[in-house]
Amino acid sequence: ATTVTLARTGQKMPLVSFGLWKVTNEICADTVYNAIKSGYRLFDGACDYGNEKEAGEGVRRAIVDGLVKREELFITTKLWNTFHSKEHVASAARKQLQDWGLEYFDLFLIHFPVSLEYVDPNHRYPPAWWGDDKKVHTSNDTIQETWTAMEQLVDDGLAKNIGISNFSGQSIIDILRYARYAPQVLQIEIHPYLTQEPLVKLCQVLGIAVTAYSSLGPQGYIELGMDKSLPSLLSHSSVIQIAEAHAKTPAQVILRWATQRNIAVIPKSNNQERLTQNVQCIGFDLSKADMKTISSLNQDLRLNDPAEIDPRLAIFA
Ligand code: A2P
Question: Which residues are CB-neighbours of 246 under 8 A, at least 6 positions away?
């Protein structure tokens, strides 16, 4: 399979897609255009990535040049934490649609289960975790209020599917108690150092599709210069051995390990050769033993933890 089928709408979501986090503004439009040329159909954005206009420009050019039709693309983006209250959800989504130059999103996710005080986009955009005083200001909006406003986006045709990101199992169960539309997708950090088996299993039981971010593990954080002492995954001897046995690259093996678990991946690359390599990570199968070897690298290593920004944001505790 090259897609996962979303439960409520039956829409097919590609298993291998392109993540826009850390794609710089200068190259974003060309990167999206070239990715479409290389076969990517899903792009995963967010307003705090600060490149939605440029990504939209790449999409627009690809459509004008006849490479792809809008309905063949699957555009995902996310609601930032400062827009959680019911009067801000739709206006945030409309602004993002305008930036992309689109009439609807295929998937709109709540980025984090964290509500922050509203900051007017005319004052600061793209949004951030911090206020002008460099402090985090949490707000009292409940996830129920936000989810109800997200459901309205579906009713109003702004989003075909809605979902969540960085939510725990307990918070998913909670949403299901009041949801008119269950979340279609959960996007979380997953890689061989953070295999997330219980949460993935819960989603599979509940019929919620799972997307992995940071699927190449520390690579995307080494790029940010966050921590140079992080253990490498692409040069791990077990990964290299499996890659050699299948005549694939270590990155392809790690991406295949996820997709073989029916988990969608969204690796980012600024490099055309790696971008092509990544989209070609299906079309071979890892053995049960390979899958087990890679899963056994788990060390519950969470690289994206908002508690490092502010201890009150310990959402995974
Ligand atoms: P680059 O853009 O230079 O290719 P993320 O985890 O946020 O999706 O980021 C992926 C990280 O892994 C980026 O730093 C990216 O750097 C790198 N990367 C992407 N594809 C490959 C690949 N096939 N081989 C090695 N590194 C890769």
Answer: 253, 284, 286
- CATH number, domain of 234, equals 3.20.20.100
Provide ipTM, 2 decimals. Answer: 0.99
Q: pTM for the full model?
A: 0.98
Q: Probe ligand 1: pick from 48, 49, 193, 223, max atoms within 8 Å of CB? A: 223
Total structural domains within the chain:
1
Domain region containing 307: 3-313
Task: Identify each DSSP E strand in 258-310 by its residue range.
Answer: 263-265
- The helix/strand/coil state of 313 is helix
**Which residue minimizes the CA distance to atom 13 of ligand 1?**
220
Kindly report which listed range (8-22, 219-233, 253-267) carries the lowest average pLDDT score: 219-233
Distance CA 250, CA 4 (A): 24
Q: Which residues are catalytic?
A: 49
